[in-house]
Structure prediction request, 84 residues.
Amino acid sequence: MAGPNLEVLKFGVYIMFPIGFMYYFGTNLDSRFTVPGFWPKPEETNRIPFEKEDIQAELERLRTRRLERRNRRLAEGGEQEQEQ
Prediction:
């Protein structure tokens, strides 16, 4: 047997290793683990309309976009049927 000093040393290592690990990865996170340009800037994000007029305009824009896509899809589908 190695003695009580080895047990004290092992206990200290067992306690200090997780504390050191958490201290290393828990401090200075902003400069150590950041990816520049990862989050979009506020002017690049979607803006939710809150006013009634803005909501109506957004719904009209989405409706127009959906109908354009539908018409394009139907036109492409008709061309494919004629080719066969």
Summary: The radius of gyration is 31 Å. Residues 52-83 form the longest helix (32 residues). The mean pLDDT is 87.
